[in-house]
Amino acid sequence: MRLPDPAASRAVLIGTGQYEDSGLDDLPGVHANITDLELRLGDEHNGSFQQLQTVYNPDRSSAVGVLLDDEARVATDTFLVYYAGHGLVDRHGALHLGLSTTKPGHVNYTAMPFEFVRHAFLDSPATNRVLILDCCFSGRAIEAMSDPHSLVSGQVDIEGTYTLTSSAATQTSHAPNDARHTAFTGELLNLLGSGLPNDTAFITLDEIYTHLARRLTARGLPRPQRRGTGTAGQLALSRNQHRAVATHTRGLPRAGTDFVPFAAEFVVVTAQLPFDLDKPTDVPPQWIPRPSGLRTALRLQPPGSLRAEKHAWVGWPGLADERPEAFDDAGLTVVSVPLAKDEIRDSLAGFANAVVWPLYHDATQRPAEDRAGWEAYVVVNRRFAEATAEVTAENASVWVHDYQLQLVPAMLRRLRPDLRIGFFLDIPFPPLEPFMQLPSRTEIVRGLLGADAIGFHNARSATNFLSAATSLVGLRPEARALQVEDRQVTVGAFPGAVDAVGIEALARTPEAIQRARQIRADLGNPRTVLLSVQRLGHVDGMRDLDSTLGVNRQLQALYELLADGQVNAANLVAVSLVDFVAKDGAPTYLNLGGGIEDSIAQINSLFAPLGRPVAHYLQRSMSPEELTAIYLAADVLIATPTRDGMNSVAKEYIASRRDLDGAVVLSEFSGAAPELTSAFLANPYSIENVKTAILDAITVDPAEKRHRMRALRRQVLTHDSIQWADSFRAAITPEASPR
User: Fold this and answer.
1) Of 221-230, 386-395, 511-520, which gets the smallest average pLDDT?
2) CB 3.0 to 4.6 Å from 376: which of 346, 371, 456, 511, for a disulfide?
3) Which residues contact 106 (CB under 8 A, 6 or more apart)?
């Protein structure tokens, strides 16, 4: 956030509300727009612009053009232009702004060419350039502005200029009969006055846009548009909240009271939606759901669960430059946040995956200083915060997830201080020493502290975050809580969960049981099937993944067991599966690093019987049905990452084994290890330790195996995704009662 420099900033306010025998409708609200904006922006004690020019009902375009040029050239910090009135199009398709003498039949020489405004901005040396248009487009202008193929549609886009327009639709932003201002400017004035439920002295242009969009849409009016943001999105304007609001707009809702039609009482925000957008060429696009315990918890309605009357899920749809409409998923409103290709490259693949992910997983390399990636990360987080602010009801609860969105809580709190906000980190939070290497460490901690409750998979990560907050922000924890200004932020462990009931139900089906038998037959009906599954999300930008996943260590342990004769290749098959969503739906090969392919080839060349490999390595996206069948076919699941969050695969495997058969080899450093104590725990850094755990799981007494699996299932089925969501909801909103 930055403020205009009064000495180096200029503002020009232009309004045409009266038209002399032209056939154009007068706009009575425009005069109040100009006079009251002048009071707001030019207040010598509490305004943003000390040097401000106003022009009401101009009759000559040349005079306005000269004024714009003069002010633009002397503004080196901020140059702002506001226009309210009719927008028109001449017979050549060029956009004009109405003057008091404008005649629709002679637009090209009775109105002011929009090019006057464009050239003024392009010639200005100002760092921040801001254009605000409250135009009631009339007649042919409406059609031209709304036609994406017309010459007019892009005319309001000016390079390097932050532009807010009242609408790009065919409706107009006229003033209601009982209102003093036009609707768009009336809301703007309200935001610059005391129309927010807080006492902050400033409001950024991005925040203004978010509030305008939410409030105008709630009133059934056209949604405002934001174009060519330039560098001014974080420019802050003064709010005159302490002066008498004599010019307050009548009949307009105050912020925090009126929202979009599907204003949600509970909103989940994730980096990517739990759906894949399928776009075949011959049929309309379709949403394909992916397995998600949290989505299940939202769609089901058990007593006391987090389901409210209205709830929503906000996230990226998974494809670049896509802006699909919101849709309903069994009562859950799903809202997409569009991302451009460069934003995906720089923010998700760049900063989040190439810097944050390896650092949080205790990677040994020093994090790179990715400035472009960090800037994109900030932009993407702000877009998520704005999208969330628009769809959330007053005093509602928001639950933000994912390491890609660590700045959202603080950004959202600034936009909507009325909300209760929770954040859950889906990967480990690192110890203080490696975290201190991150150039943006303080910004991330402050971003997370915007939440009322911050959750991690285990107590170790929660302790690491408290240490970071103490060292970087100077906060002292008391009973796992931090005092942030007038708020108390709860920090705790909320071990993640899976849809255990749904997975168990799927495992009961005759189709899953038959498919599991077929899989074992296809593998040669060995005595023992070892299974390792790595589930990956958006992996672009990640390098040397296996240093964390530990697949090659598992293969090394298997190699030594075979070489030492402790297991027999004739009776054993190992399957390593990488389950991920292919980019753009196309077959993709992931190089996880670590020499996995060489290890697979070595094992098979040395130990496999003729015609039957000992080790299989698969990379593909698996349906829930197929993956459940694979779980049922496996005798031992091996999950030995050096560091992870929940390890949902281990819990899914356990949920599927209602037969009490099967065993789990689990890393001591897995986020699930403190819960799944009946698994065969192993130190993934010790090949010998992993070998022992695998051998113990293969040779365990059947009675002990059933006893261990029964204990594991009791934990997983009791602490399922619904219970997990309920417990976190109670932390976000203490008055909410878990079931």
Assistant:
1) 221-230
2) 346
3) none
DSSP secondary structure, 443-474, as one string: HHHHHHTTSSEEEESSHHHHHHHHHHHHHHH-
254 alpha carbon, distance to own chain's centre = 27
Range in 95-104, 147-156, 249-258 with the lowest mean pLDDT: 249-258
* Rounded-to-integer distance, Cα 204 and Cα 265, Å: 26
pTM to 2 decimal places: 0.67
Nearest CA to 285 among 331, 336, 333, 340? 336
What is the pLDDT at residue 88?
A: 82
- Per cent of the chain over pLDDT 70 is 80
For residue 363, the model assigns a pLDDT of: 66
Buried-exposed string 24-57: b where 16+ CB fall within 10 A, e elsewhere: beebbbbbbbbebbbbbbbbeeebbbbebbbbbb
265 vs 274: CA distance, rounded Å: 20
**Strands 487-493 and 453-456, how do they pair?**
parallel
Token couple for 28: 């009575």
Neighbouring C-alpha atoms within 13 Å toward the C-beta of 404: 27
Q: What does DSSP say about strands 332-336 and 9-15: parallel, antiparallel, or unpaired?
A: unpaired
Amino acid at 466: L
pLDDT for res 173: 42
Instruction: Write out 212-270 in H/E/C secondary structure.
Output: HHHHHHHCCCCCCEEECCCCCCCEEEECCCCCCCCCCCCCCCCCCCCCCCCCEEEEEEE
Query: Two tokens at 230?
Result: 């330039």
**C-alpha span between 47 and 59 (Å, rounded):** 29
Pairing of strands 327-329, 332-336: antiparallel
695, 566 in Cβ contact below 8 A?
A: yes
Question: Half-sphere exposure of 682 toward its Cβ, with a 13 Å CA cutoff?
Answer: 28
Please give the Cα distance from 215 to 187 (Å, whole number). 8
- Which residues, in sequence order, are CB contacts of 371 under 8 Å at separation 6+? none
Q: CA-to-CA distance for 401 and 392, rounded, in angstroms?
A: 16
Whole-angstrom CA distances from 275 to 19, 84, 313, 469 are 53, 42, 11, 35
CA distances from 2 to 160, 233, 237, 319, 735 (A): 17, 10, 9, 33, 38
Residue 505 in tokens: 């139900």
Rounded-to-integer distance, Cα 14 and Cα 21, Å: 20
Helix %, strand %, coil % of the chain (to 5): 40, 20, 40
What integer is the mean pLDDT of 533-552? 62
Kindly list the distances between the CA atom of residue 165 and the CA atoms of 83, 185, 224, 304, in Å, as whole numbers in the listed order: 10, 10, 6, 44
Q: According to the model, what pLDDT value does residue 230 have?
A: 57
Eight-class DSSP state of 151: S
HSE value, Cβ hemisphere, 13 Å, CA-based, for 570: 1
- Rounded to whole angstroms, the Cα distance separating 552 from 210 reads 48
Percent of the chain with pLDDT over 90: 35
- The answer to whether the CB of 728 falls within 8 A of the CB of 298 is no
